[in-house]
Amino acid sequence: MALLLLWILFGLGIFIQLIYLLPIFGKVTFFKAKPNNNSENTEGVTVVIAAHNEFKNLKRLIPQLFEQDYPNFDVLVINDRSRDRTGRLLEDLMSQYPKLRTVTVKYTPDHVTSKKYALTLGIKVAKNDVILLTDADCIPASDQWIHKMTRPVRNQNMTFSIGYAGYEQQKGFLNRWIQFETLKTALLYLSFAKWKSPFMGVGRNLCYRRSFFMEIKAFKDLWHLEGGDDDLLINRYATGKNTRAVLDADARTISIPKENWKDYFSQKKRHLNIGKHYLTQDKLKIGWYAFSHLLFWTGAIGLFIYLALEQKWEQIAIVFGIFLMRLLLLAWVFSKANRNLNGQKNPSNTLINDFLYLGYFWILGPISHQSKDIKWN
Prior knowledge:
Layout (H helix, E strand, L loop, with lengths): L1 H23 L1 H4 L15 E7 L3 H11 L7 E8 L5 H11 L3 E6 L8 H11 L5 E4 L4 E3 L4 H11 L4 E4 L1 E3 L5 H22 L11 E4 H7 L14 H7 L5 E4 L6 E3 L5 H14 L5 H30 L3 H30 L7 H21 L7
Helix pairs in contact: 1-11, 1-12, 3-4, 7-13, 10-13, 11-12, 11-13
Family: Belongs to the glycosyltransferase 2 family.
Keywords: Glycosyltransferase, Membrane, Transferase, Transmembrane, Transmembrane helix
Enzyme class: transferase
C-alpha cells in the first residue's frame, strides 16, 4: 500500500510538472520574435522612478536612460524623503538633461504606504500618458528598452505591457540561486500572460497608461499594503485582452542583486507576503506548480528509500530514469527560456536549486505570509 501511494504521488507530480514545463512554459521557451514591419507612432513616454536614498544608483541610471534610442520621452524621478545627496544630484542632473524632471515627497501620510504614495504623486504629474516604470537600482539592457517595452501600449492598444527584470550575474551561490528563482518566477508570469491569463508583473519593468491608472484610482484598496504597487495592480486589472508580455532580451532591465542572505530574505518576504492577496485562480497557477514539484520530490525520495530497503533494483532504475528525464527537461527548458529572456546561458546548479525551491516555497512562503514587519524603505 505504501509503495502504491508513493508511485501515485510520484506519477501525479511528474504529470503536472510536464504540463508546466512543456505547454505552459513553452510559450516562453519556444518564443520567436517576429519582425515588426508596421509603421509605429512615437507617442510620448514618461519613465517613472520612485527613489528613496538612491544617490549612487541614480548617478549610474540617469545618464544611461538618456542614451535610449527613442525620440519622444522624458524621465520623472520621485525623490521620496531621501536623506542622502539624492536631491543635490537630481538638481545637477537636470541642468545636464533638460528632459529630466523631479517630484519631491517630504512626508507620507499615516494611512498610506510610502512607495504607492510616491508613485501616485509622480504619475499624477507625468507629462505623457504612456508610463514606463523601473527602479533606481535597475539599468536597461539595451538602448531599445523604451521602444520595445512600450510598443504594445503605443501601437497595439494595450493597457499594460509586462517585461522581464533580471539581475546582474555575480560570483557566489546566492547569486546563482537568485538567477534561478528569478527565471522560474518569470517563466510563470510571462508564460501565463502569453496564454492570455496574466496574473502579475514586476515594477522594475512595467508599462501602462496614466489615464487608466487615474481612472481606476489604482491603489484605492491597496494603500494599507506594503508592496503590491506592481503585481497586485496587474492581478486586479490585467486581462488577456488588455495585456501583452514583452519577451525580447533587449526590453529587459537588469537590477543589482542582494549580496547577503539576510537582505535577500527580507526582500523575498516582502514579495511573498503580497501573494496572499492574489485572486484565488491566480494563486492556483503558482500553487499547482509548487504542489506538483513537492509531489515529485517527495515521491522520488520516498521511492528511492523504500525500494532500496526492499532491494528492488529494477524499479529503482525506472524511478531514476524518470527522475533524470525530468531534470534534463527542466534544465533544457530553463536554458532555452534564459536565452530568450536574458540572451545568456542557463543558470548553473539546476538540480540543487530545484531541490532548494522546496524550502523556499514551503518554508519561506508561509513565514512571509504571516510576517507583520514588511517595509519598502
